[in-house]
Amino acid sequence: MNPLALHIQNGVLNGPVAVGYAIIAAAAFAYCVARGRRDLDDRLAPMAGLVAAFIFAVQMLNFPVLPGVSGHLLGGALAALLVGPWVGALCVSIVLIVQALLFADGGITAIGPNVTNMALVGTAAAYGLIFVLLRVLPRNPTGLAVTAFVASVVSVVAAALSFVLQYAIGGTTQLQDYGLGQVLALMTGTHVLIGVGEGLIAAVTVLTVAKTRPDLVYALRGLRKTGNPTGSTGASGSPATIPTGGTA
Fold first, then answer.
1. Lowest pLDDT segment from 51-55, 133-137, 174-178
2. What is the predicted pLDDT for the residue at 67?
3. Are 52 and 95 in contact (CB under 8 A)?
4. What pTM does this model have?
């Protein structure tokens, strides 16, 4: 595996950094469990299972980025859009833990740093941007697609930069051929391209769900809960559907 792929392998970070980030990841995981319980209902619970399964399956499909380097969907933005930041972070965390334990995709000692980067930082960065973009862009398929695409790119780059920070704090001699500046350049440049691929996948997936069952898209439900004037419910209380064209 390329040493600068986002899944960190054993030995890339020293022991204190790996342990420290494991503690951070465990504490954040527990907090997400507590917050996620408030969101779970008869719609979100099965959707969370589907999101985790989808992310797991798509992460197994690599696409070429540069010679000798491949990327895959990280899933933070997609999960945040469909099931929200708390449950979304849990979905990505579970996928990463299963991959490390059963498929050796990411080191066992690096589970904490990997969960921090891809499940916590990636999902948080994505949802923060989603929260803003869905309030300034048109409430139509184009606006939703742009939101999914941009949030995905930012999410992947944020996760990559989080690794660079970890490497700066406690990188080991396994990457001795790479200076910090080179690590930053390679990680940022490569993962911008990976983010573009993820953005296209996320945009298509979210649009497909939104056009048929907009009530299953957490981000759209969140807009209604905060009083979005264009996302009001009808007399029956059922959520309005996303328009299939035109502007909001």
1. 174-178
2. 45
3. yes
4. 0.83
